[in-house]
Every structure is written in structure tokens, then in C-alpha cells.
């Protein structure tokens, strides 16, 4: 009898299978919500048997954990690229348009919003989100320190923390505005976010 764990000896294949499940779960969560989507529905959308899926995920909570981790990695990669630029302030300002555009895209924000709603009810998911947020805040904080030092600005820890929270709130709020006001003027929003971000980055 074939050992189902053998597939994990091929990391690329295992990751492809995991991605296949996550893509199917994203469709099911968007359509039915976290509680409405069953593992049977996800397995059907993924084209796998439920037993096959359990080789990669213990259940819906572990699928959510994978979504959270994938989002952290996406954000960390963007922040790392910005932090490696010669002028970090300009790099962060240049990212405003793509940041707003991403947060206006339901394909990007719908699952995080669904997970946030679940976190309000599920302490395990809340803990996952809080850990992910801590790591993302740290990456952003490191960039903000670099950006301000490049301008010769020394900043207290408390002030840095406040500015980091404000920057995150600015971009996370875009998704909710998109949900409530889908016809908002994207161009004017990008311009306004650009103006709002400048003093948070380098005003004393």
C-alpha cells in the first residue's frame, strides 16, 4: 500500500497541492463564508478527496493559518524591497498607488476580511492574526526607522509605534471603504493617501 506521506518528500509537489487547496478554499469562503464552507465543498472545488486534503491541512483552521501566513509573506516581501532602496521614504511613497489598488481589490481583501470576522469569534484564529500583525508591524517599523534616520530624524519608541499603527490603519481602512463604497474615486483616494502618508513618514 502506498504511503500517503510520500508526497511530502517532494516539496514542490506538496506546495502545489497546498496551493490547489488554498485556491479552492478561497472560492468556497468567498461564496459561503468560513462557517458555511465545508471541507467536502472545498475538496470538491479542489478536485481532491477529503482524505487527500487532510494530508496537507488538519482542517479549516489550518487552512486559515496558511492564508494568514501567505499574507504575512506577501507584505514582508514588499516591505523588504522598500527597505532596501536608497531612499526608503520615496520608496514607501511610491508604493502608495499599488498599496491602495491592492486593498481595493476584492480578490485580495475578501479572504482577510472573512478571517478577521472569524477571529472575532475564534480565539485561536485571533491569536494567529495577532502574531501575523506583530511580525508585519515589525517589518514596517524597521522601514520607518530607516526612512526617518535617512532624514536625520530621531524618534521615540512610542512615537514610532503610533505612526506604524496609523499607517496600517490608513491602508487597512481602504478595504472597508471599498466594501461600503465600491464606486469611490480611486485616483483621488490615492492622492489623498499620498498626502496623508508624507507627515507620518518624515515630519518631526
From TrEMBL:
Keyword Transcription attached: yes
DNA-binding region, residue range(s): 38-57
Transmembrane segments annotated in the record for this chain: none
Entry annotated with the keyword Chloroplast: no
Domain HTH tetR-type: residue ranges: 15-75
GO molecular function, one term: DNA binding
Family annotation (InterPro entries): BetI_C, Homeodomain-like_sf, HTH_TetR, Tet_transcr_reg_TetR-rel_C_sf
Keyword line: DNA-binding, Repressor, Transcription, Transcription regulation
Record's protein name: TetR family transcriptional regulator
Organism field: Undibacterium terreum
Amino acid at each position: 500500500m502506498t504511503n500517503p506521506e510520500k508526497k511530502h518528500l517532494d516539496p514542490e509537489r506538496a506546495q502545489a497541492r497546498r496551493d490547489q487547496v488554498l485556491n479552492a478554499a478561497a472560492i468556497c469562503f468567498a461564496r459561503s463564508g468560513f462557517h458555511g464552507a465545508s471541507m467536502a465543498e472545498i475538496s470538491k472545488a479542489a478536485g481532491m478527496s477529503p482524505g487527500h486534503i487532510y494530508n496537507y491541512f488538519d482542517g479549516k483552521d489550518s487552512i486559515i493559518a496558511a492564508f494568514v501566513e501567505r499574507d504575512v509573506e506577501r507584505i514582508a516581501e514588499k516591505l523588504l524591497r522598500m527597505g532596501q532602496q536608497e531612499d526608503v521614504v520615496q520608496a514607501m511613497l511610491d508604493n502608495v498607488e499599488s498599496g491602495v489598488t491592492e486593498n481595493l481589490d476584492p480578490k485580495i481583501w475578501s479572504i482577510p476580511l472573512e478571517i478577521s470576522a472569524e477571529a472575532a469569534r475564534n480565539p485561536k484564529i485571533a491569536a494567529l492574526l495577532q502574531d501575523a500583525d506583530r511580525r508585519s508591524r515589525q517589518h514596517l517599523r524597521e522601514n520607518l526607522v530607516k526612512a526617518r534616520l535617512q532624514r536625520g530624524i530621531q524618534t521615540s519608541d512610542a512615537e514610532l509605534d503610533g505612526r506604524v499603527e496609523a499607517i496600517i490603519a490608513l491602508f487597512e481602512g481602504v478595504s472597508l471603504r471599498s466594501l461600503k463604497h465600491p464606486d469611490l474615486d480611486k485616483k483621488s483616494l490615492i492622492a489623498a493617501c499620498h498626502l496623508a502618508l508624507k507627515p507620518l513618514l518624515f515630519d518631526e
